[in-house]
Amino acid sequence: MYDKRDEQALSKAPEVTVGFWLINIAATTLGETGGDSVTVTLNWGYLAGTALFLVLLVALVVAQILSKRFHPVLYWTTIVASNTFGTTMADFAARSTGIGYIGGSMLVLICLAAVLDLWNSTQGSVSVNTVRTAKVEVFYWVAITFSQTLGTALGDWLADTGGLGYIGGTCIFGAALALVAGFYFWTNVSRALLFWTAFILTRPLGATLGDFLGKPMSDGGLSLSRPLASAVIATFIVFCLIVLPQRPARYAGSADALHC
């Protein structure tokens, strides 16, 4: 028998599983190659590319809020849009405004911390399981977008400015994600805190992987066509959406605030 309370208990964000993280890393890589395809390959520039992806992101977020339930294709399309916007926004802030990757990273980190703190203080939780109302969805997508932008800036900072190169940067962020996984399985640290930490770290991992695919060999990359790399990654994401279960997270009625 249908119970409306079952629908009300479902989040409009997906259940956080291994499949979620696999698709998310692929989406972050697509965000990097897709963003660079527009700003660099098509020569739109960072400002025009940022404006384009901002309009697309806003339209998709509105569609997300207006939808009555979780739609996997719509959700992951919005995630890809937030990634491409994060890529172009981070590049614009670092290269066109002159504040550099360190300055850009600090600015976005402050914005992200402020959004999470406001979300936490007004709603009592920043868990993806609670993404069921328009207000929480706005908090969620703003936090997602700042996380993507921060991750892009961090990835480019370590790979380019930090001198680690793309493979070195990938190893660093992969190790950091493994550490977060260890905290998840063997400690009682807030699951919400670990989720947002891992989400931030997957972005630079995807960014460095994307740069590794598209940058010239002289810069340590594979010199692949960005549009071609984007098409391959997009196909992989579609494949994952078909074969991996995508279920909405369920709200259990318990808050998960940003504290240990």
Detailed description of the structure:
This protein is mainly alpha-helical and 260 residues long. It has one domain. It has helices at 4-8, 18-41, 46-66, 72-96, 100-123, 134-161, 165-186, 191-214, 226-243, and strands at 10-14, 248-250. The protein is globular, with a radius of gyration of 18 Å.
Task: Annotate the secondary structure layout.
Elements: H1 4-8, E1 10-14, H2 18-41, H3 46-66, H4 72-96, H5 100-123, H6 134-161, H7 165-186, H8 191-214, H9 226-243, E2 248-250
Antiparallel strand pairs: 1-2
Quickly list its features.
260 residues, mainly alpha, two-stranded antiparallel ribbon, disordered N terminus
In short:
The chain has 260 residues and is mainly α. Helices cover 73% and strands 3% of the residues. The protein has one domain.
- Per DSSP, the total helix count is 9
Strand content: under 5%
Q: Cα-atom Rg, whole angstroms?
A: 18 Å
Shape estimate: globular
Order of helical and strand elements: HEHHHHHHHHE
